[in-house]
Amino acid sequence: EFHFDRYNGAKSPKMHKELPGPGAGIIFDLGPHIIDQALHLFGNPTHVFADMRKTRPGTEVEDLFEILLYYPEMRVRLKAGYYFKVPVPAFQLHGKLGSFIKTRSDRQEADLDAGRKPQGDSWGQENPQDYGVMHVDGGNPERVPSENGDFMAFYENVFQSLRGEAQPAVSVLDGINSMRVIDAAMESSEAKKVINY
Description:
By secondary structure, the protein is α+β, with helices and mostly antiparallel strands. It has helices at 26-29, 31-42, 108-113, 151-162, 172-191; strands at 2-5, 47-53, 64-70, 75-81, 91-95, 98-102, 132-136, 142-144, 195-196. 27% of the residues lie in helices and 23% in strands.
């Protein structure tokens, strides 16, 4: 289960996010961030189910979604919304051998908001209390250090790809697959049924 939650009932000052039309709503704003993570980890699903709603007073676009990605051996739940006052884990993975819980995702956005520059070996490095925790049968919970986040490496790859010096880290097909999930989620929410991917 992946969450990208906020607590902010106010409308965005960016009107393209708040007016009905192509690319509007939370599915296009926060959705791609967790959809691409799920597809990167688990591949393309076989089916998609989604529930999207308008929860903020006066909103004209969906601002809450829950998507289920169906795989032969598992399901992956993706959620995002604006009314999560108490933080829930950003990542929860549960299986036969145990569970992995991570309370928050990458810290780079918070660091940028705090005015820090994306440079140096400590950039994107999490505090130990923010590491994920692995729980396994017969063992004590164990903190799992995260790799340092590095937005700049992504943009450097884009630059190098445009110059023909590297293959893109995110392919056109990756983007298309994320859009297929969004399209299936919108169709599912409208029809209230599971959609073939």
